[in-house]
């Protein structure tokens, strides 16, 4: 145990714990294992831990949990591991922990930014909506960047995150959120039936309020000890998963709950395999919400001075961590719970200067006990002001209806305005809260999902009632989830504490007639005055008040502030609270790291990288790859000393001179099988298929219903009832979906099935005059003669002893083949073909050469030369539309007036007047370059390349009325001058097509 | 029907070139899980109306399951229910289910996909947790018993999942996604182990 100044000997639950050294703002301190950073700082007498968001006011530790609005610090493990905005009240201490305060310069105790506090009239509510609007130009250049820099909270890490994060989907029958007495009782009841239970709590230790409620006794044990024993029992059960350090941050549709487990943030040296955080995505049949209640602060002048904290928090620090938050504390309360804190502190030897109770004549055992201990108790009085700056030094007390002031020196003030049921998750589940007029609080009203609230979050007061309610709810949730038997016994509450009520809104001394800074929302620096100003300026809806003032916004989600803000607004509006309504609680309940959300999806798992069977060969040859969707495709194969231009030129020439090998494996492939296969093809493609003989191929065009080109590809008929369809690489999945969609919804009467075979077959295109010579020696069982295997035909046989679907087809205009082999044989067959090819001087070519070669022939690429607004006629493909067909997808769309009107953009060729000039793809085309800007654009370049085979540049373009303009001169205005072009046909090389059989 | 594709797809003995399966031999072992790429097998994507199921079952020697999320297995051949008219047939015994289907006259579509898929086994006490790193299905033994099968997702990819034992799964994915799936399962296994 450390000898820290405020550690009380014999108090707390970690008296035997080992010392853990840590530093805060460079100063070294000793804490103990089991501490949070907050309790360890308080043990050393440190209250000042941060500067506020807007006014840079010194701030201390307000709470002992996730509701903490002030004590947000940066935790550093190393240069790359810097986490901003960590709640010191949640961060567990480990030996060597380094923490830094935020939002201050040059130091925490002297912060230049605190000038904002003095200049605060400028920064009043809604200031960024109005104050800095003039002159307009200054907003972007001056005000916005300055305000952003000044107002940000914490500093983002500037290096890649070296930690890893994991994720886990889980299902359970009963998910219990919150591990206090209620959650544990519910989990016990559910678990005893044998159903699957998950119990999660955001703290390292279960117990919730039992951490501080010294008066609680359950099953004959101290409440906290009972909680530990119960959780140990649950942990040992096979049907239960217990998740400490796990925050349920979002409640989504159909009982889907997102939770983040802090796996290793509390460890001194997390192992390499250990994730930092684990994202749990849980689908539960029933959810039990046991999220407890959050204590409210009192709203009075300068209520944010370090040393002023929630009474329950002070009690937690004492009873759980053995830390006294001061030596001479004052208490300011409007309900009984603060008395218990005062009593516990007094018993631990701390002087309690006075209890100031806003109520007139409260009675009860805690009040009697406080008096019996000799504590001065004042009724009907208010603390109207706190003294001190970096630490509270006094409280000034006044009768609540006015009168003489009295200033009492204190070094801490414990306050309690009552407890707010924590309905965040219930509200996120789309449940509707209801206002209880008697207790002045919103509690769960109408449920929208299969969940139930128990205990303090349901407005249930008293431990006994809580345990009864929770145990019954847990058992019912299990039954509703299908449990048959229950064999447990309900925990028996022997002694408990109970309190309710309190007050809402500003306390005396912070009323509408004052200009004091009485904070409602500490994290967003919103005062009672700001809320009033919002109403004064015309905000009537609480949602507007929230946005105008930022009360309850952002990461805080109004945990301590919502009800006070609402009450002040309601008072100003002269309306009862339920008429003003409650703002919507948003996920996440507490901030969630990007790491947890991304979890595994980073680096190689960010997105699948698809590689073909032949990829390793291309890689070994030094290919440069390009991304095509998720695929890596060989772009070109540079030889030593070659740039891309030289490599592509060489590859293009080789294909036309001898032959080239190309990896076409990524092309989408779909096997269409069934007696109605041809009928289906007739409906999905513009072309006729019924008469296509088995063994022959056809170039097919697929339209959408609107008549525009959707995809294209060569289709081979393998048998009367079997087609081998190819699609574009990028189109493969959506074409499959498109076909399946029509088959299931429009043509369900057809007996035909679709199977993706993209990855079954590796595809090696062998193109060029020597292609047959290269393939023939390796093929068995297929007659390769032009008579037996003409252009656009397909045969099944063997190559290199493995099965092949051998297509005679061409995307280059040369004699060509596409060799399909089962994927695992792809690389070996490629190597065999490559070896043959070497005898003839063949080259491997990549996607760039493929693009150039097809452009030389005017073959279009769907998605490059078309853009979803191009019809077959626009693309010059009328020949591929079956003239006698009466139906296919798009046939009616194609006949729409606009699609047959004159002057549509048509695909044509362009030749630059200067053959050396290569146009830019996407460049706009005009008729008259001398016209005034903006010029009338009549089309654009879709494809453009240098063609070594043509000895000039070539381009394809969509031009209005293009085919009627062939021979005309048009212009392409570019930043460096206007380029003159001649409109031509689309075929630049071998116009007669003789080379297909060459 | 289906005569054109009726031949055996892998006459391994006569081929003059080497078969190179993706990820061949890759495996990783974490404390509670082993993730291992399985050797090649024969696979058929079988589509058929209910009326053909009996004839196809007879030809295949395994009764095609009719209940969602189930599979049937006999003599090294497993049929996984993927949809009301869809099965994935896997043969680990070196026989050719495509050839067996070719003789069936009843209406159906059988397409060879032996090379389309890669199989990865996930075994060990943490096997379900490993897969649940990226698969949202309930993998408890009650909801997903031994023999259960499902086409589902893992992270950003589609997989077919088959439970082969209480602590063993077969994960099938398309060839080009296998590196992603293997890497994902490896990461999941690290987390399942701790």
From TrEMBL, chain A:
The keyword DNA-binding is annotated on this UniProt entry: no
Single GO MF annotation: sarcosine oxidase activity
SoxA A3 domain ranges (all copies): 517-597
Any GO BP: tetrahydrofolate metabolic process
Record key words, sorted: Oxidoreductase
Aminomethyltransferase C-terminal domain span: 905-990
UniProt xrefs under InterPro entries: 2Fe-2S-bd_N, BFD-like_2Fe2S-bd_dom_sf, FAD/NAD-bd_sf, FAD/NAD-binding_dom, GcvT/YgfZ/DmdA, GcvT/YgfZ_C, GcvT_C, GCVT_N
Region (Disordered): 479-498
Protein name: Sarcosine oxidase, alpha subunit family protein
Native source organism of the sequence: Mesorhizobium ciceri biovar biserrulae (strain HAMBI 2942 / LMG 23838 / WSM1271)
Automatic annotation (TrEMBL), chain B:
GO terms, biological process: sarcosine catabolic process
Chain positions covered by the region annotation Disordered: 1-27
One function term, GO molecular function aspect: sarcosine oxidase activity
Comp. bias regions, Low complexity: 1-16
Domain of life: Bacteria
Family annotation (Pfam families): SoxG
InterPro entries, per database record: SoxG, SoxG_het, TrmE/GcvT-like
NCBIfam families associated with the record: soxG
Protein name stated in the entry: Sarcosine oxidase, gamma subunit family protein
Naturally occurring in which organism (per UniProt): Mesorhizobium ciceri biovar biserrulae (strain HAMBI 2942 / LMG 23838 / WSM1271)
């Amino acid at each position: 145990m450390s000898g820290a100044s405020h550690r009380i000997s014999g108090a707390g639950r970690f008296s035997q714990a080992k010392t853990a050294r840590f530093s805060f703002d460079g100063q070294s301190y000793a804490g103990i294992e089991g501490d949070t950073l907050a309790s360890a700082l308080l043990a050393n007498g440190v209250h000042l831990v941060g500067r506020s968001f807007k006014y840079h006011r010194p701030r201390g530790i307000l709470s002992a949990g996730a509701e903490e609005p002030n004590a947000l610090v940066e935790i550093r493990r190393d240069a790359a591991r810097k986490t901003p905005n960590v709640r010191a009240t949640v961060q567990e201490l480990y030996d060597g922990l380094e923490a830094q305060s935020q939002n201050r310069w040059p130091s925490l105790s002297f912060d230049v930014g605190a000038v904002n506090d003095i200049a605060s009239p400028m920064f009043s509510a809604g200031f960024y909506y109005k104050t800095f609007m003039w002159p307009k130009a200054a907003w972007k250049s001056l005000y916005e960047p300055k305000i952003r820099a000044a107002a940000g909270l914490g500093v983002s890490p500037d290096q890649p995150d070296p930690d890893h994060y994991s994720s886990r989907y889980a299902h359970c029958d009963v998910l219990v959120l919150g591990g206090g007495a209620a959650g544990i009782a519910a989990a016990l009841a559910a678990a005893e039936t044998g159903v699957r239970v998950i119990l999660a709590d955001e703290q390292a230790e279960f117990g919730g309020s039992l951490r501080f409620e010294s008066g609680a006794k359950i099953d004959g044990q101290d409440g906290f000890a009972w909680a530990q024993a119960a959780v140990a029992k649950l942990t040992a059960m096979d049907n239960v998963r217990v998740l400490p350090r796990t925050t349920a941050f979002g409640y989504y549709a159909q009982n889907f709950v997102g939770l983040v487990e802090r796996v290793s943030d509390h460890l001194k040296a997390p192992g390499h395999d250990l994730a930092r955080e684990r994202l749990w995505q849980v689908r539960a049949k029933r959810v039990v919400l046991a999220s407890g209640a959050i204590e409210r602060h009192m709203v009075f002048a300068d209520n944010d001075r370090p040393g002023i904290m929630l009474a329950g928090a002070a009690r937690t620090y004492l009873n759980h961590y053995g830390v006294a938050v001061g030596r001479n504390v004052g208490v300011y309360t409007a309900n009984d719970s603060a008395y218990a804190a005062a009593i516990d502190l007094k018993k631990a030897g701390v002087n309690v200067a006075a209890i100031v109770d806003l109520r007139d004549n409260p009675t009860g055992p805690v009040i009697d006990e406080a008096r019996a201990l000799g504590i001065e108790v004042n009724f009907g009085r208010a603390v109207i002001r706190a003294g001190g700056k970096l630490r509270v030094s006094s409280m000034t007390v006044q009768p609540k209806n006015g009168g003489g002031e009295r200033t009492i020196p204190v070094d801490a003030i414990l306050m309690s305005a009552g407890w707010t049921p924590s309905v965040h998750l219930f509200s996120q589940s789309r449940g509707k809260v209801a206002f209880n007029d008697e207790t002045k609080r919103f509690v769960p009203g109408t449920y929208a999902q299969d969940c139930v609230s128990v205990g303090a979050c349901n407005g249930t007061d008293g431990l006994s009632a809580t345990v009864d309610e929770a145990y019954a709810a847990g058992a019912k949730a299990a039954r509703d989830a299908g449990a048959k038997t229950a064999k447990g016994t309900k925990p028996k509450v022997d002694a408990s504490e109970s309190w309710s009520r309190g007050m809402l809104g500003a306390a005396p001394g912070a009323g509408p007639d004052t200009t004091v800074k009485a904070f409602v929302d500490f994290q967003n620096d919103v005062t009672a005055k700001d809320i009033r100003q919002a109403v004064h300026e015309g905000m009537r809806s609480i949602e507007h008040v929230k946005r105008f003032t930022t009360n309850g916004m952002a990461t805080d989600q109004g945990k301590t502030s919502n009800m006070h803000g609402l009450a002040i607004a309601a008072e100003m509006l002269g309306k009862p609270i339920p008429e003003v309504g409650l703002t919507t609680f948003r996920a996440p309940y507490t901030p969630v790291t990007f790491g947890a959300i991304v979890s595994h999806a980073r680096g190689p798992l960010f997105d699948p990288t698809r590689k073909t069977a032949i990829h390793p060969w291309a890689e070994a040859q030094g290919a440069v790859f390009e991304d095509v969707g998720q695929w890596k495709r060989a772009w070109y194969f540079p030889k030593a000393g070659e740039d891309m231009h030289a490599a592509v030129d060489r590859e293009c020439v080789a294909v036309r001179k001898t032959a080239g090998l190309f990896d076409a494996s990524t092309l989408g492939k779909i096997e269409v099988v069934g007696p109605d296969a041809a009928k289906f093809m007739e409906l999905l493609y513009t072309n006729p298929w019924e008469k296509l003989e088995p063994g022959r191929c056809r170039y097919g065009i697929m339209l959408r219903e609107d008549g525009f080109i959707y995809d294209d590809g060569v289709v081979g008929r393998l048998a009367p009832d079997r087609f081998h369809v190819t699609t574009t690489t990028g189109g493969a999945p959506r074409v499959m979906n498109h076909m399946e969609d029509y088959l299931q919804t429009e043509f369900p009467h057809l007996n035909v099935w679709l199977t993706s075979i993209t990855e079954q077959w590796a595809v090696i295109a062998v193109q060029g005059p020597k292609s047959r010579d290269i393939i023939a020696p390796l093929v068995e069982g297929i007659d390769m003669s032009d008579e037996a295997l003409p252009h656009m035909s397909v045969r099944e046989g063997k190559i290199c002893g493995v099965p092949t679907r051998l297509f005679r087809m061409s995307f280059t205009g040369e004699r060509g083949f596409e060799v399909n082999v089962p994927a695992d044989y792809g690389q070996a067959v490629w190597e065999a073909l490559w070896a043959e090819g070497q005898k003839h001087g063949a080259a491997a070519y990549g996607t760039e050469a493929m693009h150039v070669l097809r452009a030389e022939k005017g073959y279009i690429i769907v998605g490059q030369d078309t853009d979803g607004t191009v019809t077959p006629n626009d693309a010059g493909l009328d020949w591929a539309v079956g003239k006698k067909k009466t139906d296919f997808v798009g046939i009616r769309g194609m006949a729409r007036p606009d699609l047959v009107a004159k002057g549509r953009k048509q695909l044509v060729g362009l030749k630059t007047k200067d053959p050396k000039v290569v146009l830019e793809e996407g460049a706009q085309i005009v008729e008259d370059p001398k016209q005034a800007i903006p010029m009338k654009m009549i089309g654009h370049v879709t494809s453009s390349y240098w063609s070594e085979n043509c000895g000039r540049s070539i381009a394809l373009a969509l031009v209005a009325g293009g085919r009627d303009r062939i021979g005309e001169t048009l212009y392409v205005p570019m930043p460096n001058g206007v380029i003159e072009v001649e409109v031509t046909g689309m075929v630049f090389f071998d116009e007669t097509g003789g080379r297909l059989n060459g | 029907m289906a005569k054109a594709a009726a031949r055996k797809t892998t006459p391994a003995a006569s081929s003059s070139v080497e078969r190179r399966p993706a990820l061949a031999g890759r495996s990783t072992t974490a404390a509670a899980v082993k993730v291992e790429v399985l050797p090649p097998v024969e696979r058929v994507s079988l589509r058929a109306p209910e009326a053909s199921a009996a004839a196809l079952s007879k030809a295949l020697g395994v009764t095609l399951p009719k209940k969602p999320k189930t599979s049937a297995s006999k003599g090294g051949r497993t049929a996984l229910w993927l949809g009301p008219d869809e099965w994935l047939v896997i043969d680990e015994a070196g026989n050719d289910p495509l050839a067996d289907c070719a003789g069936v006259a009843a209406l159906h579509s059988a397409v060879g996909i032996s090379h389309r898929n890669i199989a990865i086994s996930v075994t060990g006490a943490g096997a379900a947790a490993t897969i649940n790193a990226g698969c949202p299905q309930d993998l408890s033994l009650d909801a997903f018993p031994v023999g259960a099968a499902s086409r589902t997702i893992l992270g950003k990819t589609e997989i077919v999942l088959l439970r082969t034992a209480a602590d063993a799964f077969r994960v099938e994915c398309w060839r080009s996604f296998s590196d992603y799936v293997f890497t994902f399962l490896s990461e999941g296994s690290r987390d399942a182990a701790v």
